[in-house]
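The instructor's notes for this session suggest beginning with a concrete chain rather than abstract definitions. Hand out the sequence below and ask the class to guess, before any prediction is shown, which regions might be ordered.
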Amino acid sequence: MPDRGGGPTGPRIRAGRPSRRVRTLLVTLGVLAALGMAFTMFAGFWTDWLWYRSVHYSSVFTTTLWTKIGLFFVFGLLMALAVGFNIWLAHRMRPPLSAMSMEQQSLDRYRMGIAPYKTWLLLAVTALVGLIAGASAAGQWRVWLMWVNGVPFHQKDPQFHRDVSFYAFDLPWYRFLLAFGFATAILSLIAAALTHYLYGGLRVTSPGSRASAAATGHLSVLLGVFVSLKAVAYWLDRYGLAVKSSDFRATGNWTGLRYVDANAYLPAKNILFFIAVICALLFFATLWRRTWQLPVIGFGLMVLSAVLIGGLYPAIVQKFQVQPNEQAKEAPYVQKNLKATREAYGIDHTQVSEYSGRAATDDKTKLRDQVGQTASIRIMDPNVVSPTFQQLQQIRNYYGFPTNLDVDRYPTKDGKEQDTVLGLRELNLDGIPKNNWINDHFRYTHGYGVVAAKGTESDDKGRPVFTEKNLPSKGDLGEYQQQVYYGEKTTTYSIVGGPQKEIDYSDDQGEKTTSYQGKSGVNLDNPLNRAAYAVAFNEPQILYSGAIGDGSRILYNRTPKDRVESVAPWLTIDGDAYPAVVDGRIQWIVDAYTTSNGYPYASRTTLGDTTADSLTATNNSRAVVAQQNQVNYIRNSVKATVDAYTGDVKLYQWDSADPVLKTWMKAFPDTVKPRSDISPELMAHLRYPQDLFKVQRELLTRYHVTNAQTFLSGSEVWQVPDDPSNDSRDSVPPYYLSMKMPDQKQQVFSLTTTFTPNGRDNLSAFMAVDSDPRASDYGKIRILKLPTSTTVDGPKQVQSQFNSEPSIAETISLLSRGHSQVEYGNLLTVPLDGGLLYAEPVYVRGGTLKYPLLRKVLVTYEGRTAFEDTLDQALDKVFGVKGSKPPESGTTEPPASTSPTVRQALQDAQKAYDAGQEALKSGPDWDAYAKAQKDLQDALRKAEDAQSAADKPRTSGD
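After discussion, reveal the predicted structure:
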C-alpha cells in the first residue's frame, strides 16, 4: 500500500507553501488593492479637474499641474542620472583583483550576494533618489513660475544696485538650484564611495594603498564639484545679505546689511569665494597628480578661513568698532532699512501731523453741532450684536449669522449714505429638525436673505433699527437674489438640482421648496463622476442614491475664502470676507494680497502675528490665510468677488503697478480682470482691507519716524493698545467709521486705530486711512501725533475712568445684577477741535433675554464724562447744551426751586427713577425700565422748563 504518511513512496507536500487557491486569492486581493489605490488617486485628480472646470479656472489647474509634472521629471531624472552614473562609473573602475585580507573576504560575500541583482539594485536606488528629488522639486512650482515670468520692479537695492526683482524672483530659484546641486553632489559622493568600498577601490583595514588611482580620481572630481558649488554659495551669500533677517539690539527684527555685514561679512564672502575656487581646482588636479595632499591642504585652508574670516573677524569688528559707537556706525544702514521698509509695506507716503490733544475752543457748547459733521458715531457694534440679529431675525433654527457682523455703506431713502451693520442669514445645519444624509445634503442646502441695521441708531428698547429684515428679507435694499448657497458658514457639500426638492424658506403658510437653477458645481449625471466623488468624500451613497438623478450637481468649496484661494493659490487671502448687495445679487467681497519675502532691506513680519487682535483670538475664521508666512512686501493687488448664489469667482486687478501681480498674471494669463471691469455699484462697496491695515499699523509703531538717529534711540516707539473692552491682552481691532480728519472737508468712510507709547497707556497717536475707493485719497494714511510734553488719555485709561466714576459704576452694578451681564462695545475715538472724543456703547444681556441690547452710551471729551441712555443725550451732557452745567460725572443734580411746578416735576422724576431702578432689580424688566426712563426724561424736561420760566426777569407790566 502507498505510504499515506508522506514517506518515500507517498506524495510530498511542501511545508509552509500556500495552496494554489490561496495564492490566487492573495494575488487577486493584491491586484484589487492596487486598483483601489490607483482609483483613489485618480478620484482626487479627477474631482479637482472637474471643480476647476466648473468655476472656469481650468487654466490654473493645468498650468500648476504641468509645472509640477515638468519639475518632477526634469529634476527627478537629473538626480537619478547623476547618482546612477556615479554608481556605474565606480563599478566600472573597480580593481580587477581584490586584496587578500579579512576585510575583502567579508566583502566578497556581499559582492556575490548582489551580483545577480546588480542591475535591479541600481535601478531601485536611482528610482528612489529620483522620486524624492522630483517630489521636492515639484513643490517649488511657485519659485519656478516667478523666476521664468518675473518682471522688473524698476527699483534697485542700495548696496549691489541690482533690481529688486533679482531678490524677489531670481535669487530664490538660484538658491533652489544650488541646494539641488549640493544634494546631487553629496548623494553621488556617498553612492560612489560605497561602491568603491564594496568592490575594493577603497580599503579601510587592508594593507597597502587605501584607495586605487581610479577611486582617488573619481572621488576627487566629486569633491571638486562640491567645493565649486560652495564657491557659488559664497557668491550668492553676498546678495543674500541684503535680505538676511537678524536680531538687532537697537531695533529688534532686522533685514538687510548692517555695518558689520558691509565691512566684515561681505569682504569675507569675497575672499572665501576665491579660496573655494582654488580649492576646487586642486581637487580637479588629482586627475593628473593622483594624490590627496594638495586638495586636503586646500580644503583645510578653506575651513580655517571660514572660521577665521567668516566668523571670528566679523565678531571682532562688531565688538571693537561697532559697539563703542553703534548709532554712528549703524545710522547709514538704518536709513536704508527705513526707506525700504516704508516702500515695501506701502507706508512711505504716510502723512504725520502734530495734534495738540486739547480742544481749541473754550466754549464747548459750540462743539456740539460739530460732532455730527465730524463723524457718524456707530453705536451698533458689529462684534457684539450678532446674537441680537440671531434672536430677532434668525426666524428658523436652521439659519445663523456669523459671530462678527460687517460694516458697509448703503444709501438711505433720501440718497445719503449711512454706516450699516449687516450679515447674511446663512445655513446652520446644527439647527435643522433632524440630521440625516438627505436633510444635511439635499433638503437644507442654503441660507436666505440679508439682514441690515443702521449703525448709528437703536430703537427705544435698545434693539437695532433694521433697514432690511424678515423672511424673505424686505427693506431698503430692494429686489435681489436672496438664496445664499455660498457663505462663511457653509462648509459642507450639497447636492442640488436633481429630483430631491430643497427647502427654500418657511413662512406662515408653511415651507417653500425650490430647485437650484444655477450652473455652479459639478454635474453628477456621469457614473464616473459619481464614483469619483463617492471615493473623494468617503460617501458611498453618492454612487447609488436614488436622490441623485438628471440635473443633480454637487456644490463644495463653498466658503468665499476657500474659493478665491483655490482659483488663485498665489494670493494671500484677507481674514474678513464681507457680503454686499450689488446689481441685484449678493456678492462676497474678498481682499487678496500679493506678498514676497525678498525685498532687500525691508524688515520681515509674520502675518499671523501682526494681524492678530481680540477678534481673531475669539473667532479664528477671521484669521488671515497663510498665517505663518513671513513677508517683507505686501500689496492689496486683487479685489475678488464670489456670487452667493452661483459661486462665480471674479478676480479684479486693483494695484496695476504691482510687479508681483504682473508676474503672476504672466504665469496665469486671463485669470485676472482689469480694474476697469469693476462696476460703479461694486466700487461703492469696496473698502480698505483690515489685515493690510493691521500689518501697516504694526510697522508704523516703529517706522513712522524717518530719521535713523531717532529710530535707533527708540524714544518714539509706539504700540497697539490692548482691547479695553475685555480683560484679554489681545490688541484692539481697527474700526470702520465714517469721519473726517482735521485736514478733510467732509466725512469719508475710514479705518481707524490708536497708538500708545511703548509700555504706557496714554495716547501717542491716532491713525486713519481713507477706505472709500471713490474718494480721491483712497489708501492715504494719516497719523495725528500727540505731544510728548503732555499726556492725553489712551483707550485703556478712558475705560478705567468710565469704570471708576462712582455714579457710572453704581449704574453698571445695577445693570449687571441677577443674571444680567454688561458688555462693552467698540470704544471709538474721534478727533474733534484739537481734542479727542471717545464714545462707547454699553449693552446688557441677561434675564429672560439671551441677547445684548443697547442700554447706555458712554461719552467723554476733555475730562467731561456722560453715561446716558442715548448718544444724543450723552453728547448734550458732555458739551453742556440745553442750559445744563457741563457735567463732571454721569449724573447732574437739578437746581433747587420754590416753584410748585418744579417741585412736582422733581417728585415725578424721583418716582420715575425709582421705578427704573426697581425694574432693573426684578428680572430685569426692560420694557418697564424703558418706560421709566421716558417718564424720567419728561419730568426733568418739565422741571427745566418751569425753572427757566421762574428765573426769567419780570417787567414792570407783570
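Then share the key points. Residues 1-15, 883-898, 951-958 have pLDDT under 50 and may be disordered. The chain has six domains: 57-204, 212-328+337-344, 346-374+698-890, 375-558, 559-686, 893-951.
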